[in-house]
Design goal:
heterodimer, A: 287 residues, alpha/beta, Rossmann fold, 2 domains, eight-stranded mixed β-sheet, B: 563 residues, Pyruvate-ferredoxin Oxidoreductase, domain 3, 4 domains, seven-stranded mixed β-sheet
C-alpha cells in the first residue's frame, strides 16, 4: 500500500521505466523519513548521475544533484557545515562504486553522519546496459560482448573490512523490509551504507524480481552486527541464498563530533569591529 | 645599502632555517627584505637555495649578482661562486678554492663550531650570526628570535643557540673583513621600525581567513600546499574546517557542497590538480554555487617541474571545463594584493554566484616580501542570501541580470540544485527552450561582472611599456628603475584583474607606447588574450619558461634587446 507523505513531489514526470526497482526504493524512503518525523526542509538528498540519481527530484526535499560519482564529497561537506540537517547521498552502483569508488573509501574513514543509499542493479542503465562494478563475471553487453571479464565488487565486504559505521543490504522488491533497514540506517549516528538490490527490468535479464525473491532472506537474531568478523563472513554469502538486513554496526565518533567545538570559535568577520580585531591579531604575526 | 645574498645547501641542511631566521631578523631591524626560494622536488639532498635581497628602501625583485654567498655545502660554492660580485664575500664551505677577482673567502666550518657547542643543529645559528656580522647588524634581535623560537626546547637549547650566533659573529669579526667599505654602507638614518614579512601563500591563506571562509578542502600539491598549512594552523583558533581531501576532485566537490550549505568555501591546488577540478568547476557554474579556487602555477604539462614557477595556466583556467560559463580570473601581483584579492574574489563570486579563480605561482607562493604596513582595504560583504519570501521559491529564477535568489538549505524554502540543465526551481529539464533561456541567464552575468573589474596598474613611460600580469609586477618595477638609471623611460602596465577584462580596455591601452609583454610562459598568453579582446597586435613578447623567476639584471638585458 502506498502511503501519502510530506515528501511526495507533485506534478513531476518520473523518467524511470515502468516496473523499475527505483519506485520501491523511492516510496520506502519517503515513508521512512516520514515515520522518523523529519520535515522536508530538514533533509538534503545529494545524488550523482544515472537513473537512480534522479530520485531526489522525485522527492520534496532539499536537493543537490551533482556530478557522476561525486555525491559523497558534497554530502560530507554539507553535513560538516550544517550538522543539524539529515544528509543522504543516493545514487547507483556505477556512480558510487565505479566513478566515485575512491570517495566511498575515504568517507568510511572520515565517518561523517551521512547515509549512502546505493541503488544496485548490477548494470549501467542510463548508458544502456554496460557492465557495472557489481555485474557478475560473464555478464554480456554491447560493450562486453565476450562477457564481463572482471569479478564483481562486494561493497558490503569492502565497507565492513574498513570498519564502516553501519553496513546493510536491502531489496527494492520488499518495501516494508527496505523501509525498516532505511529507518535504522538513517537513525544511525555515523556513516551508513545501504546497498539496495534493485532489479533493472530493461537491461538486467538475470537479476530479476523473481530471481531475488527465490534467494533473499533476512538476517536473524542469531546474527550479531557488532561482530566485524561474523559480519564480514555473512557479507561473502551470495548465490543461492542472499542475506538482507544490517550486517554490521560500529558506532564511533563522527567527523562532526570531532570538529564540534570549532563552530563556537567562528568570528563574525562581516562585522567591522570583529574584522579589525582579527586583522590586527593576524597581521601582528608577520612582524 | 642594497645587498643580495644567497644561502645554498642540500635539502634538509638548514637553508630554509637560516634564510627564514635572517629574513625575519633583518625585517625586525627595519630593513626591507625580498627572499626567493629555489628548491627541488625531494625531501633530502639535491641542491636548494634562497636568494635574499635586503635594502634600506622598499624592494620588489631579486637580483642575480651576489654580494654574499653562504655555502652550507661545497656544491653551493662550485655552482654559485661565479655569481659573486667583485668585493663580495663567500662564507662557509669554500673548499680550497681560490677567490679570484677580489672576492673575499671566509671559510667557516658551521658544523664544526656547532659540534663543539654540542650538536650539529646549532650550525644554522652559527651561519646566521656570521651573516649578521658581515652585514653589520647587531645580535640583539637575533637573540630575541632565538629565545622565542627555541623557548619550548628549554633554556639549555636557547643558550647554545645564542652562543652559536656569537661564535659565528666572532669569527667574522676576527677575520678583519668587517671593516671593509662594502659592509659599512648601512646608514644610521634607517628607522628603527619593523617591517612585515609575508609570503604569497601566507597572504592568500590570511585573505581567506579574513574573507570569512570557514571551509578549505585541498589535496597537497606544490606550490599550493602552504595555503593548506596556513589555514590548518589557524583552524582551531578560528573554527575553520580544513580537510585534506582524497583527491582534487573531492576537494572541489567538498568546497561546492560547503558553499551550497551556506558558508564561504575555497580550494587550492596547482595546474595538475586544477585539471582534475575542471568538471567540478563546471558544476559550480551550472549550480551557480560560488567558490574560490586558487591555482598556484608551476611548469607543465603533466607533472612538469613541481617546485618551479610559471604563468602557463592563464588560457587554461580561462576556458577550463566544457561549454561556456562566466567566471572571474584574478592574479595578485604581490602578497599585499593577494590578501585583499581573496576577500574581493569571495565577494564577487558570491555576488554573481560564479566560480572565482585566483592564479598564483611558485614565485608568488614562496617568495617573502616586506612592507611597512600590511593593509586590508577590502571587507567581506555579508553573503547575499536573497529571497523576497513570496512563494514559490525558485533558486534559478530568470532575472534581468542573471543572478537568482540564493538560499541555503534548512530554511522553510527547499533549495534544489542540479548539474543537469534545470528549470527555475532547479529540477532537471529537457525543455530546450528553457535550456536556451538558462544558458542566456548564466551568460548575462558576464557583462555585469565586467563592470566590477579594475583597469591595470599603470606607470607611464615614453620609450616603452612593459605589460605583465600576476607575480611579475615587482620585477617590472625594478626593471623600470634600473633602466631609468640608464636614461630610459619605461612604463609598466600590469594586470591583476584578468577575466572578464575591464571595460574600455581597447581605448585605455592605446596610449601606451611600444608595448612589450613580459610573461612566464612560452607563447605570451596575456598578449594572446589582449589581442583577442582589443584587436591590437602585441608582437613584442619576452617569455621565460625555464621554471625560474625573472631577476632584475636578466630582464633589463632582455628589455634592452627588444626596445
Amino acid at each position: 500500500m502506498t502511503v501519502a507523505t510530506p515528501f511526495d513531489a507533485h506534478g513531476v514526470e518520473i523518467a524511470w521505466c515502468p516496473g523499475c526497482g527505483n519506485f520501491g526504493i523511492l516510496q520506502a524512503l519517503k515513508e521512512a523519513l516520514n515515520e522518523l518525523g523529519y520535515r522536508p526542509q530538514d533533509v538534503v538528498v545529494v545524488s550523482g548521475i544515472g537513473q537512480a540519481a534522479k530520485a531526489p527530484h522525485y522527492l520534496r526535499v532539499n536537493v543537490f544533484n551533482g556530478l557522476h560519482g561525486r555525491s559523497i564529497p558534497v554530502a560530507f561537506a554539507i553535513k560538516t557545515v550544517r550538522p543539524e540537517l539529515l544528509v543522504i547521498a543516493e545514487s547507483g552502483d556505477g556512480c558510487m562504486y565505479g566513478e566515485g569508488g575512491n570517495h566511498l573509501l575515504h568517507a568510511i574513514r572520515r565517518n561523517p553522519d551521512i547515509t549512502v543509499l546505493v541503488h544496485n542493479n548490477q548494470v549501467y542503465g542510463l548508458t544502456k546496459g554496460q557492465a557495472s562494478p557489481t555485474s557478475g563475471e560473464g555478464f554480456r553487453s554491447k560493450a562486453q560482448p565476450w562477457g564481463n571479464l572482471s569479478r564483481p565488487l562486494n561493497p558490503l565486504s569492502l565497507a565492513i573490512s574498513q570498519g564502516a559505521g553501519l553496513v546493510a543490504r536491502a531489496f527494492a522488491g520488499d518495501k516494508e523490509g527496505l523501509k525498516e533497514i532505511l529507518k535504522e540506517a538513517l537513525s544511525f549516528r555515523g556513516f551508513a551504507l545501504v546497498d539496495i538490490l534493485q532489479p533493472c527490468v530493461t537491461f538486467n535479464p538475470v537479476n530479476t524480481y523473481a530471481w531475488y525473491r527465490e534467494r533473499v532472506y533476512y538476517l536473524g537474531k542469531d546474527h550479531n552486527p557488532e561482530d566485524q568478523v561474523a559480519a564480514f563472513q555473512k557479507s561473502l554469502e551470495w548465490g543461492d541464498r542472499i542475506p538482507l538486513g544490517v550486517f554490521y554496526r560500529n558506532p564511533q565518533p563522527t567527523y562532526e563530533m570531532k570538529v564540534e567545538g570549532r563552530a563556537k570559535k567562528r568570528r563574525n568577520l562581516f562585522e567591522e569591529g570583529e574584522f579589525q580585531r582579527v586583522l590586527q591579531e593576524e597581521v601582528a604575526r608577520f612582524l | 645599502m642594497d645587498v643580495t645574498l644567497k644561502v645554498g645547501g642540500a635539502a634538509g641542511q638548514g637553508v630554509q632555517t637560516v634564510s627564514e631566521a635572517l629574513s625575519l631578523i633583518l625585517a625586525r631591524h627595519g630593513y626591507y627584505v625580498f627572499s626567493i626560494e629555489d628548491y627541488q622536488s625531494r625531501i633530502r639532498g639535491g641542491h636548494t637555495f634562497t636568494l635574499i635581497r635586503t635594502a634600506e628602501q622598499w624592494i620588489s625583485g631579486g637580483k642575480r649578482a651576489l654580494d654574499i654567498l653562504v655555502c652550507l655545502n661545497e656544491e653551493t660554492y662550485l655552482l654559485h661562486r661565479g655569481e659573486v660580485k667583485e668585493g663580495g664575500v663567500i662564507l662557509g664551505k669554500v673548499g680550497n678554492g681560490d677567490s679570484g677577482k677580489g672576492v673575499h673567502l671566509l671559510p667557516l666550518d658551521f658544523e664544526g663550531v656547532a659540534l663543539r657547542l654540542g650538536n650539529r643543529v646549532f650550525a644554522n645559528m652559527v651561519a646566521t650570526g656570521a651573516l649578521l656580522a658581515i652585514l653589520g647588524v647587531g645580535l640583539e634581535k637575533a637573540q630575541e628570535y632565538v629565545r622565542e623560537t627555541f623557548a619550548q626546547k628549554g633554556s639549555e637549547i636557547v643558550a647554545r643557540n645564542e652562543e652559536a650566533l656569537e661564535e659565528g659573529a666572532r669569527f667574522v669579526e676576527a677575520s678583519g673583513l668587517f671593516s671593509s667599505p662594502f659592509l659599512k654602507k648601512r646608514s644610521d638614518s634607517l628607522k628603527a621600525s619593523q617591517r612585515y614579512l609575508i609570503s604569497g601563500n601566507e597572504a592568500l591563506g590570511l585573505g581567506a581567513l579574513l574573507a570569512g571562509c570557514t571551509f578549505y578542502s585541498a589535496y597537497p600539491m606544490t606550490p599550493s600546499t602552504g595555503i593548506l598549512n596556513f589555514l590548518a594552523s589557524r583552524a582551531e583558533a578560528y573554527g575553520l574546517i580544513v580537510e585534506q581531501a582524497e583527491d582534487e576532485i573531492a576537494a572541489i566537490n567538498m568546497a561546492i557542497g560547503a558553499s551550497y550549505a551556506g558558508t564561504r568555501a575555497m580550494t587550492g591546488t596547482s595546474g595538475g590538480g586544477f585539471c582534475l577540478m575542471c568538471e567540478g568547476l563546471g558544476l559550480a557554474a551550472m549550480t551557480e554555487t560560488p567558490i574560490v579556487v586558487i591555482d598556484a602555477q608551476r611548469p607543465g604539462p603533466s607533472t612538469g617541474l613541481p617546485t618551479r614557477t610559471a604563468q602557463g595556466d592563464l588560457l587554461f583556467v580561462l576556458h577550463a571545463s566544457h561549454d561556456e560559463f562566466p567566471r572571474f580570473v584574478f592574479a595578485p601581483r604581490d602578497p599585499q594584493e593577494a590578501l585583499n584579492m581573496v576577500i574581493r574574489a569571495f565577494n564577487l563570486a558570491e555576488k554573481y554566484q560564479v566560480p572565482a579563480i585566483i592564479l598564483s605561482d611558485q614565485y608568488l607562493a614562496d617568495t617573502k616580501w616586506s612592507y611597512d604596513q600590511l593593509s586590508c582595504e577590502e571587507r567581506p560583504v555579508r553573503p547575499l542570501f536573497s529571497w523576497d519570501g513570496v512563494p514559490p521559491y525558485q533558486r534559478y529564477a530568470l532575472t534581468p541580470d542573471g543572478v537568482s535568489p540564493r538560499l541555503s538549505p534548512g530554511g522553510e524554502a527547499l533549495v534544489i540544485a542540479d548539474s543537469d540543465e534545470h528549470d527555475e526551481y532547479g529540477h532537471l529539464t529537457e525543455d530546450l527552450v528553457l535550456r536556451k533561456a538558462m544558458q542566456e541567464k548564466r551568460m548575462r552575468k558576464l557583462e555585469f561582472m565586467r563592470k566590477e573589474m579594475r583597469l591595470p596598474f599603470v606607470l607611464e613611460g615614453k620609450d616603452a611599456t612593459l605589460i605583465g600580469w600576476g607575480s611579475t609586477w615587482g620585477v617590472l618595477l625594478e626593471v623600470r628603475k634600473a633602466l631609468a638609471q640608464k636614461g630610459k623611460s619605461i612604463g609598466v602596465v600590469h594586470f591583476s584583474d584578468l577575466y572578464p577584462l575591464p571595460e574600455g580596455l581597447r581605448d585605455f591601452l592605446q596610449r601606451f607606447p611600444n608595448p612589450i609583454v613580459v610573461e612566464q610562459n612560452f607563447s605570451g598568453q596575456l598578449a594572446m588574450l589582449l589581442e583577442r579582446e582589443t584587436l591590437f597586435p602585441f608582437p613584442k613578447r619576452i617569455c621565460r619558461y625555464d621554471g625560474l623567476p625573472f631577476l632584475v639584471e636578466e630582464l633589463v638585458e632582455q628589455v634592452e634587446e627588444v626596445l
